[in-house]
Design a protein that fits this description.
Layout: H1 3-48, H2 51-73, H3 81-104, H4 109-137, H5 143-171, H6 174-192, H7 213-251, H8 255-278, H9 288-300, H10 303-307, H11 312-340, H12 343-375, H13 377-413, H14 415-421, H15 431-440, E1 442-446, E2 451-453, E3 461-467, E4 469-476, E5 479-487, E6 490-492, H16 494-499, E7 506-509, E8 513-519, H17 520-530, H18 534-545, E9 547-550, E10 553-556
Antiparallel strand pairs: 1-8, 2-7, 3-6, 3-8, 4-5, 4-7, 9-10
């Protein structure tokens, strides 16, 4: 087996390990959070016996968390993302420990809501940082599958968490669920600490030629349909927090335990849907427009069936379909954001998305509570079924425009990364690997007629031709022999680095050029992480083994 294949295997193992760690950290944290969502709703309902107070508990913890998340999103990239995620997990664990003590003492609901709001804000920052890390770990072609893995994790937590909470609440109080949630946050922090080294971004080559503000504004304008789609799905979830409690206790007469089982039914359906997406069977998750509309149809419209008053078994089946729809919307939005957002904007953008989720959830809970008092359960279920789907349908043209322009959006937000990604040499490299290469690159302006590399000198760097045209020549008996002409974007110098041989050809600027010089250790490190792409393997075979005869002298076609 060749060195390139070995390196590719190393890359696959490293990427899979890091993505697994991130995904498991998310599922462990979310497992506790979903259990705690049931526990805080039950705590509020048992103390007040009022669906209105359940809505107050939701809004009361989400609105402060919304503000804190929005403010925190502006600072989340001031520190390494793993540090942010771990610190957020620690903050959540501390808040849950305090909440467990408060619940054990039957403390005031208002104080419990305040502690929950701190935990909710920190959990959103943790998720934003973890999602940004996941986008950097995988290759571009795997972004949809990585989003599906995250959705699988969330769906598993949605399925198991409420059921676990219901089981615990059958034998113990909410304080035990809060304490267990604190343990899950601590476990998540330990898992994230096991990630491989993450390199902080520095100034990209050529950054001084243009301000990133214009690209950032274009990114912000482009992703608003995704944020709106996420808000609509969150609004349905917020309504569920209130409506399912009423369905379980008054329509199904299953008590608060029935609330947890309805959520578990949704999670089971979501788990199946996410597993299908992860295996690549469902391609609709790759398109924001199709995935969001179909997902909302499955998520909101089945509420019409619940309005007819079915039994427990039928209600669980309805919830399974709805859970599949929720995962489909989530996957479409997360994959779209990961696909379009440059890494330096990923964490703040995901934090902003979580703020939108909090706002949508709060709006859904408040609206459902008002409608329940005004028109009753059945009409409220009908409204909640039809309005979000109609809104998503109206949003679909904007989502289709996003699908068509997502590649251009990322190019505008991070043009340096776009240049590297466009080179066949880096086809199999993850976003993180590309950033590590870009961070080490030094930009050089080369005048026409000036040699970039000279035959016989040591091979100490890879060169990326960003602008202009260069000529490759080799020394022959009668003088320099033209071998080929390279036009930007292109690269040269990789073969000498891989085989540790001096330059066997010269490269001279035909016109004013702009090149990036990437030191040998940076390129070889990237090759070790990412493996040799098929394009690089072909280049090694063709350039290094081919020999041309000029003036009776053999000349290797390697630079």
């Amino acid at each position: 087996m060749g060195s390139g294949a070995v390196a590719a295997e190393d890359l696959g193992g490293t990427r899979r390990r890091d993505l697994r760690l991130i995904t498991v950290a998310i599922v462990v944290s979310a497992l506790g959070s979903w259990s705690y969502n049931v526990a805080i709703a039950v705590y509020a309902y048992e103390q007040t016996h009022s669906p209105g107070w359940v809505a107050v508990a939701t809004v009361g913890r989400y609105l402060p968390a919304l503000v804190l998340t929005w403010l925190g999103g502006r600072w989340v990239d001031r520190w390494p993302r793993r540090t942010v995620a771990v610190a957020a997990d620690v903050a959540c664990a501390t808040a849950m420990a305090a909440l467990a003590l408060l619940a054990a003492a039957q403390g005031p609901l208002v104080v419990a809501i305040a502690l929950a709001s701190v935990s909710s804000a920190a959990a959103r920052l943790q998720s934003a940082a973890a999602l940004a890390l996941a986008a950097d770990v995988v290759t571009e072609s795997q972004l949809v599958r990585s989003a599906a893995m995250v959705s699988t994790a969330e769906a598993a937590a949605t399925a198991v968490g409420p059921a676990l909470a219901s089981l615990v609440l059958a034998f113990a109080g909410p304080q035990v669920v809060f304490a267990l949630n604190g343990v899950t946050f601590a476990a998540s922090a330990l898992l994230l600490l096991r990630l491989g080294p993450v390199v902080e971004r520095g100034p990209a080559p050529g950054a001084g030629r243009q301000s990133p503000a214009a690209g950032d504004r274009q990114v912000g304008r482009a992703v608003w349909p995704l944020l709106a789609a996420r808000a609509l799905a969150a609004g349905v979830y917020g309504a569920d927090v209130v409506l399912l409690a009423v369905v379980a206790t008054q329509q199904l007469r299953q008590g608060t335990a029935g609330y947890g089982w309805l959520l578990a039914g949704a999670g089971a359906g979501g788990l199946i849907a996410a597993s299908v997406l992860r295996r690549g069977v469902g391609k609709v998750g790759a398109a924001a427009a199709g995935g969001s509309l179909l997902g909302m149809a499955l998520y909101s419209l089945p509420l019409l069936v619940l309005a007819w008053g079915p039994g427990m078994v039928a209600s669980l089946a309805v919830q399974a379909v709805r859970g599949a729809g929720c995962v489909l919307v989530t996957t479409a939005v997360i994959a779209g954001l990961q696909r379009a957002i440059p890494s330096r904007l990923a964490a703040p953008t995901f934090a902003r998305a979580h703020s939108v989720v909090l706002a949508g959830t709060s709006a859904g809970a408040v609206t459902a509570s008002i409608l329940l008092r005004s028109v009753g359960l059945d009409t409220t279920l009908v409204v909640t079924a039809l309005v979000p789907f109609a809104a998503m349908a109206a949003l679909s043209p904007a989502l289709r425009r996003f699908d068509r322009s997502s590649a251009a959006v990322q190019a505008a937000g991070d043009p340096q990364l776009d240049v590297l990604r466009g080179l066949s040499l880096f086809h199999d490299a993850s976003r993180r690997t590309l950033y590590e290469v870009a961070d080490r690159a030094v930009e050089i302006d080369v005048a026409a007629g000036v040699a970039v590399v000279t035959e016989g000198e040591p091979s100490d760097a890879l060169y990326v031709l960003v602008e202009g045209r260069v000529e490759v020549t080799a020394d022959g008996r009668s003088g320099p022999v033209p071998l080929r002409t390279l036009v930007a974007p292109a690269y040269f110098g990789e073969i000498g680095l891989i085989h540790s041989v001096p330059r066997t050809a010269s490269v001279t600027a035909v016109q004013p050029c702009r090149v990036w010089r990437i030191p040998a250790d940076a390129f070889l490190s990237a090759a070790a992480q990412a493996g040799l792409s098929s394009a690089l393997s072909d280049s090694v075979r063709i350039r290094f083994s081919s020999v041309g005869s000029f003036d009776g002298e053999s000349v290797p076609l390697e630079i």
